[in-house]
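[job 4417] fold queue: 2 targets
>>> target A
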Amino acid sequence: MAEQTTSSNSYSRHAAVWAALVVLAQLGGALSPTTAQESTTSAAPTSNQGRQVSLSDQLTAGLKATTKGDKAFIAQVVNLVEEGKLPRKLVDGTFLWARERAARKSRSRELRPMVYFRPALVLRAKRIGVKL
């Protein structure tokens, strides 16, 4: 019986990992294509899209960044995106994943999305040769 429980737990872990990979892949493909050179500070309204929010404001509010360290990290990310060194699509995908991950966590231990965003973005940026 213990052997069956162990294999069941192993299967559950593998299924959870695959589900997470599928979600990350879908997030990457579902985002509208943008270029890293796009202006991220534009707040001008457009006729059919509504008001645009700057990347800095999006990350600060959406990730519930409260500490000086959080805000400094966001400023560094925005700077790298504006310089074209860090793709906006990578930042947006990580942003959406972190918000979803924080929403799915246990209610007894509610964490800010920033807790997931920072290490995930550091890892993803490292894979493309960008140091954060």
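>>> target B
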Amino acid sequence: EAIRGIMRDKGLVEIWRLIHPQANDFTFRSGSHGTKSQIDFFLIPQSMLEQVSSCDMGVRALMDNAPVDLVIHWGDSHTARGRWCMNVSLLNNLAIREKLAAAIRDYLELNTGLVTSFSTLWEAGKAFLRGKCIEISARKKREDQDAIRVLESEIVTLEKACDELGESEALHLLTEAKFALNTHFSKALIKKQEAKRSIPCIRSKEENVLTELDKIQAEFQEFYSNLYTSESPMDMCRYDRFLGGLDLPSLTSPQKENLGKDVTDEEWQEAIASPASAGLE
């Protein structure tokens, strides 16, 4: 239960069981005691599922424990998945937006006219802006960590000083410090919850485990396409017979003409002068 709790908190997956959900193999088997268990396993982050090629149990040849083989492919898919992604929450901070805007202006002033093509200027600008964002993110992370340490130290100090300060004053200061600290933790929790909402793997209709992003998207597309596709062929005669038997209300020609007319001044004045209908405001 403790391991399951760690897996939930850290977003880890027991990869062998995920790949072999129906298998009944064990990594440890004792013939003398007649016991068997799975005490050897790999826990990996959900973000690494796409890179896993296979995970299998070996042969118990020399010991009672079977080796567990995990093969990870660090190919093009890993490179594409691991590309830097901008932390868009930085743009919610006005000071950071102004700093990035100033950096872009400085870059254009220094480099416009020094390169032969705008494409080169643009590509180099993206690399420059990426470095700026990484720098700002790292600095902001250090500042947040420093602020958390200061708040934790302040809370400990206030709790020790409760006897010296008045009870109401100490409680007020403690409440403020804990609220500020919980604000930092809430932001981290929200980010963690967003990561949990991602779908790292699914099982296809052929019972295969899919971890690659493009295959997951294709499987969802196929599922919903089949879900919303009618099983019976399109028969316009059946549609006409069904709709023809319904008494659907329709507008007369004079009603259509009235709907298309412009609203007159008298109608505006009458609507303004009429009292509002009773109801919840």
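[job 4417] complete. Note on B: Residues 77-81 have pLDDT under 50 and may be disordered.
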